[in-house]
Amino acid sequence: MKRASSLWLTQALLLLPALAWSQAEPLQLQIVELPPYMVVSPDGAISGTVVDLTLAAFRKAGIAVVMEIVPASRQLAVLKQNAGPVCSVGWIKNPERASYAKFSDMVRQDAPWVVVAPANWRSPATATLQALLANSRINVLVKQSFFYGDYLEQKMATMRAKRQISTGNMGQLLKMIAAGRADLTFVPRDGFQYYVRNGRVEAGQLQVVDLPDMPPGFQRHLMCSKSVSDDVLKRFNAALSPPQPTSARLLPRSQ
Question: What is the top-level taxon of the source organism (predicted)?
Answer without folding.
Answer: Bacteria
